[in-house]
Amino acid sequence: MLSKFEAHHRMIRQNRWYWYFYILCRLSLAFGFFAAGMVKIVGERFASGLSIVHPMGAYLEALHHTGYYYTFIGVAQILAAVLLIIPRTVTLGALVYLPIIVNIWILSFAVRFDGSYMTAPLMTFANIYILVWNYDRLKYILPLKIVPSYNLIQKPAKWNNRFPFLFFSGVALVFVIVVLRFALFHDIMPRNSVKDCRQQFIGKDNQKAGFEFCDCIHNQGGSLDHCLELLED
Fold this sequence. Notes:
Elements: H1 2-12, H2 16-41, H3 55-64, H4 68-85, H5 90-111, H6 114-117, H7 119-133, H8 135-138, H9 165-185, H10 194-199, H11 207-218, H12 224-232
């Protein structure tokens, strides 16, 4: 199975369209972390428009007051972004990037934060694609028995221009699944403001309870679990 994967991997590395997608993933991820990292380095609170009593806002407010730890996160994000841009250090950049973006993904899901609820999982999948693309480098630090020699894949002299419809169909499917999960998985979302939060309850049977949920989140500073319990009661 490993040899078949490596043969398929070598074929992918010779296809121009896979390479275009690889470049897109690198640049997109680098831009995302560079922008977020600079906010932290200059000392501004990330998502400053979010209320400090909102579950995510409270977290970001506390994080903002951790001093040089907050700056350190920004530096780590900038470092990962720069490493992704430089061809020779892409693999290292993706490895630095992965734990940070997975943490953001889990955090966004835990507090149902609109800001990165969709983007964080998509960025994680893009980062994994970069790691798979660089499997020929990555395999030497993986616990694999079959590592015959140090043989990195070079840029092909002539690209294969066949468009991989199946692959990009899979990419589109993943995107749709993430969007649908955001839209349908949770009936109740805290949203980023009282107005947006109440909008999801207007005209429904639980409108009064929903407004109390929004007040609990945005005005009283209750935790997500606590406010959800009040809504269920």
